Amino acid sequence: MSRMNLLAVAFFGTLFASSFLLTDHSALFLNAIAVVIVLSGTLGATFLSYPSSEIRAAALVAFNSYTRKTPTEYEIIDSMLDIAVRSRQHGILALEQVEGHTTVSFLRSALGMVVDGYKPSEVRDILVTEMHYFSQRRGRHERLFRYMAQLAPAFGVAGSVVGLIGMLAGIGDPDVILNSIPIALTSTLYGILLGNFLLTPIAENISAKTSKELMLQTLISDGVMAILQEHNTLKLARKLESFLTPAKRHEPAHSLFEIRERYRALRGNMQEDV
């Protein structure tokens, strides 16, 4: 999550909370029994529906989606152009050094197959399969949070029913009624907030992050296949820049010239040393 996102969440979250807490009777919005009903019901139903390993994996994916930085399209394109120039200058085996230094696991896997001598059809088949199952796994994690988002308001209603039953049981006793009314009202509030202010945004963030990573994986896959087929680096740059918006499509070309100049300088230094 970017700094702008964090600031926006902090600002609007504080503004939203203040609309409740700055009222004359803000203490009525805090009810431990309602919190227990909504959380225990939502989590209990989730563990009844999914294996604990799946829940742990979804929680880890959600955490990483907010904390782990994803490379930009420009960084991936520059890396692919660098790899293309390196392979044309020093051969495919020179990519083994790039494989050991890259932090993008999908790119590392693709380069490993190239260095190991896989056929282009085999590389594409494996990469497409990996992308498919990556999408399937992320889809399951996203659905888990959407399922929890559906459960939370339902258990909020259940908490309201508990409060109403308490009110009926306390007819004739004002103290019992006064203690039951906050449970009936705040349970629904907590369920709505949990489902729509926390769980649904987490699911949407996982979905957005997955879409971006799949686009980057497609970018890497197309780039690696072009390198295997020995496409001209300028043609490769033209192909890769189609992933960018029209206003940014001049940047990869500049990157390509910079990469070429860097390798020309490197080759000149090596010849002088000899």
Q: What features would you describe in this structure?
A:
This protein has 274 residues and is mainly alpha-helical. The protein has one domain (31-273). Helices cover 82% and strands 0% of the residues. It contains 10 helices and no strands. Helix 2 (32-49) crosses helix 8 and helix 4 runs parallel beside helix 10. Residues 265-274 have low confidence and may be disordered.
Class based on secondary structure composition and strand pairing: mainly alpha
The low-confidence runs, each spanning 5 or more residues with pLDDT under 50, are: 265-274
Strand content: under 5%
Task: Count the beta strands.
Answer: 0
List keywords for this structure.
274 residues, mainly alpha, disordered C terminus
